[in-house]
Amino acid sequence: MQSFRYIRAQNVEHAATLLQQQDGRARILAGGTDLIVALRERRLETDLVIDIKGIPEVDELTQNAEGLRIGAAVPAIASMAMTASSSTILASSMPPV
Fold first, then answer.
1. What range does the domain containing 14 cover?
2. Which of 1, 88, 89, 92 has CA 20 to 30 A from 19's CA?
3. For residue range 20-40, what is the model confidence (pLDDT) as tens digits?
4. Which residues pair with 39 in a beta bridge?
5. For position 23, which CATH number holds?
């Protein structure tokens, strides 16, 4: 695996600033499995991995009168389950959970 820098973002603004500074040479670590495998197999290259898992806003999965909010670090299975139970239009476009 290639070497790269790792930074745990403090908040959403910090992550956005880091991304902008890297001019396309940074990757977001939200769940990690796909990114780490791709880096290990050299299918992706990056100078910086920005970990957003510790940012509370990106781990939110909520539903209210305004709609459904799925944060960037919410596991796919959780978002698929809530989407399937809350929206027939979205559910019809997703695989079974």
1. 5-55
2. 1
3. 999 889 999 987 678 888 998
4. none
5. 3.30.43.10
List the structure tokens of 19: 């991304």
Identity at 30, one-letter amino acid code: A
Q: What angle do CA 35, 82, 93 make, to 5 degrees?
A: 75
> Looking at the domain assignment, is residue 84 inside a domain?
yes
Cα–Cα distance measured from residue 77 to residue 97, given in angstroms and rounded to the nearest whole number? 7
For 29, counting Cβ atoms within 10 Å of its Cβ (0-12 exposed, 13-18 middle, 19+ buried), the class is buried
97 falls within a domain: no
In this prediction the pTM is 0.71
Contact 55, 9 (CB under 8 A): yes
Backbone phi, psi, residue 5, to 5°: -85, 155
Residues 46 and 66 in one domain: no
The answer on 64 and 51 residing in a single domain is no
